Amino acid sequence: MNILILGGGGREHALAWAVMQNPKCDKLIVAPGNAGIAEIADCADLDIENGTDVVRFCEENAVEFVIIGPEAPLVAGVADRLRDGGLLVFGPDAAAARLEASKAFTKEICEAVDAPTAAYAHFSEAEPARSYIKAQGAPIVIKADGLAAGKGVIVAESVEQALAAIDDMFGGEFGEAGAEVVIEEFMDGEEASFFVLVDGEKVLPIGTAQDHKRVGEGDTGPNTGGMGAYSPAPILTETIAQQALDQIIRPTVAELARRGAPYRGVLYAGLMIEGGHARLVEYNVRFGDPEAQVLMMRMGAQALDLMQAAAAGQLAGCRVNWAQDNAMTVVMAANGYPGPYEKGSVIGGLEDLPETSSEICFHAGTSRRDGKFVASGGRVLNVTARGDTLAQAHDKVYSMIDRIDWPEGFCRRDIGWRAL
Ligand code: AMP
Ligand code: GLY
């Protein structure tokens, strides 16, 4: 089978790696890919948010299955176009991708199915939003409705901070994404991510993970796309996972199908866990990055069979063969990230790292220059390992990191601290 993966980060390197483990894959193309992906697959230059271009590329290259990594093409309707063109696609149509593209839409679905989540109100004008904040008090959470690359959420400690966030959002700071604002009750607790595959109707849990969003050790400093992750998430026990499936995820999937927008792909539920109970923080319509890196390392070749079954509406009877293992990934980022950073520094030592089914360095933002790997993004490498215990995975990851020669990069040394 000829397969195309859309995207070019660490998540897509991990997806590509898992797909390549499966003998069913004859040829793999990743667009745009990166220098690490280019070691295992063909990379192609393609405007991945343009459905017409992607459909044409698939016809020209005899592609039979498309896996969409990031949210932007999904929200832009690329999966719709590919399905209209008769292709097998892993990833939801634009109508179902609204679960990530609109926070107000997700809130409305939760309300319709009575799923536990933060109380909220939805505003398109500043004045009523300000009155609501004054009446509710702080802490309180202000969210731009649309996609804002993870930056559209302000957890306000005080009423003043909340009012300032309203001024920013209605003042155009978040562009179109901020034209509508959701204001939410602040939820206390510990966050964890729950991943399920959905084939339009059936739901198959494929794992849990926790990530570290803050740039600094001890989970301090500004938010990032994620500085490291591990799987499984010990806080998401069997009982809590079952409650999240019964009260949040299955009702959401059923409601979307009832509305004529069946969900196909991976659904990532961000949960807040407190007192043995989960509430929904948000949905994403794709794998997490870097959560996919730990999930793919744990799933290996079967990931392709399961993604294909989800895309084809054939998840009934599928199951995941789990090993009793733990995986960890640590992000190496360019100095300065998530603020301004330099591109182009040379990364040494990558060629000598182990590359096995339990140790691998995924590339998130690299390119090649004069035969050497150079940094070309903020998050650059995802050093990933698995072991019988999380402590073993941790030790393998950090011993790989110690062999990488990249003075212009940094990582957190405390990934997994809650679980270790
Ligand atoms: P979101 O983009 O909705 O996931 O929000 C980003 C982050 O903001 C989440 O991962 C949480 O850490 C935090 N957050 C969002 N909503 C809430 C809430 N209602 N209560 C507490 N923290 C929240
Ligand atoms: N690591 C968080 C995300 O992918 O949204």
Q: Please, could you describe this protein's structure?
A:
This protein has 420 residues and is an alpha+beta fold. It folds into 4 domains: 2-95, Rossmann fold (3-Layer(aba) Sandwich); 125-179, ATP-grasp fold, A domain (Dna Ligase, domain 1, 2-Layer Sandwich); 190-311, D-amino Acid Aminotransferase, Chain A, domain 1 (2-Layer Sandwich), CATH 3.30.470; 326-410, Glycinamide Ribonucleotide Synthetase, Chain A, domain 4, CATH 3.90.600.10. 30% of the residues lie in helices and 29% in strands. It has helices at 10-21, 51-60, 71-75, 78-84, 94-101, 103-113, 126-136, 159-170, 238-258, 291-299, 302-311, 390-401, and strands spanning 2-7, 27-32, 42-43, 65-68, 88-90, 120-123, 140-144, 153-156, 181-185, 190-199, 203-211, 214-216, 220-223, 228-231, 264-274, 277-284, 326-334, 359-363, 366-369, 372-375, 379-387, 409-410. Strands 10, 11, 14, 15, 16, 17, 18, 21 and 22 form a 9-stranded antiparallel beta sheet that branches. A hairpin with an 8-residue loop joins strand 7 and strand 8 (153-156). It starts with a strand and ends in a 10-residue tail after the last strand. Adenosine monophosphate binds at residues 118, 141, 143, 153, 155, 184-187, 191, 270, 281-282.
